[in-house]
């Protein structure tokens, strides 16, 4: 039996948010993927979206509608520009999603719902990230855990502590069960995650700057297209989320929306 449809989200701002239904969101492709390991069909993220909500603990202030594509093919008969929406895979490739390892975690001294983590993402010093997970995960599940981090977001002040990134987590429809996304064993902190085949690592594009991610609403455009399969593997459309060691997953939340 499949678990209730759930949504996936990042851990950083401690707020319950839902994706915008604004008509200004680009009409990105809606696809279904297969689970290569089991041969089963995962639940469509569209079906999950009807019953699930998104917990977004993010370092951006809000989840806003994505802007229309800025690029234009040319001008029509009436002089209007025809905008071309890029494939969601191209947009997602601008996100700097990395393997991380929590080296230290503690309760935020000024916010009851926030943890503070120092996370190794392959840089000279660990990043400080605030995560609104106190009501969902015991602190021992954070300490020394391997995580997935969105690294190219603008830092945000969280009750006096600057949060520099987001942890990715999954929530069921009732928001009672939350799980962190987990990189496969053998993944190295700092490695950039990609979507697609095993050899896709060599074709990754350069990540956008934090200012570009915010200005172009890149995360908000990609979020609705992320999901999990019925074996809890994370997908972008039909493309699994990968590190060099294998696919990214959660433990038990199936047929979930990923963000």
UniProtKB/TrEMBL annotation:
Span of domain TRNA-binding: 91-194
Keyword Isomerase: no
InterPro entries named among the record's database cross-references: NA-bd_OB-fold (IPR012340), tRNA-bd_dom (IPR002547), Tyrosine-tRNA_ligase_regulator (IPR051270)
One GO molecular-function entry: tRNA binding
Keyword field: RNA-binding, tRNA-binding
SUPFAM superfamilies: Nucleic acid-binding proteins
Highest taxon in the source lineage: Eukaryota
A Pfam family of this chain: tRNA_bind
Name of the molecule in the record: tRNA-binding domain-containing protein
């Amino acid at each position: 039996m499949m678990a209730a449809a759930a949504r996936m989200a990042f851990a950083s701002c401690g707020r319950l948010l839902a994706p915008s239904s604004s008509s200004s969101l680009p009409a990105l492709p809606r696809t279904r993927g297969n689970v290569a390991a089991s041969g089963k069909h995962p639940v469509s993220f569209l079906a999950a979206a009807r019953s699930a909500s998104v917990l977004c603990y993010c370092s951006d202030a809000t989840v806003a509608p994505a802007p229309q594509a800025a690029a234009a093919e040319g001008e029509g008969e009436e002089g209007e520009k025809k905008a071309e929406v890029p494939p969601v895979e191209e947009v997602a490739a601008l996100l700097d999603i990395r393997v991380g390892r929590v080296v230290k975690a503690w309760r935020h001294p000024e916010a009851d719902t926030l943890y503070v983590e120092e996370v190794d993402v392959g840089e000279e010093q660990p990043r400080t990230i605030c995560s609104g997970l106190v009501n969902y995960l015991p602190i021992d599940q954070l300490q020394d855990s391997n995580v997935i981090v969105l690294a190219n977001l603008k830092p945000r002040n969280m009750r006096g502590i600057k949060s520099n990134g987001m942890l990715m987590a999954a929530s069921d429809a009732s928001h009672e069960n939350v799980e962190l996304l987990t990189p496969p064993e053998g993944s190295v902190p700092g490695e950039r995650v990609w979507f697609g085949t095993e050899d896709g690592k060599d074709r990754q594009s350069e990540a956008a700057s934090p200012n570009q991610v915010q200005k172009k609403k890149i995360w908000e455009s990609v979020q609705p297209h992320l999901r999990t399969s019925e074996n809890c593997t994370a997908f972008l459309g039909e493309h699994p989320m990968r590190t060099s060691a294998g696919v990214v997953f959660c433990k038990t939340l199936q047929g979930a929306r990923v963000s």
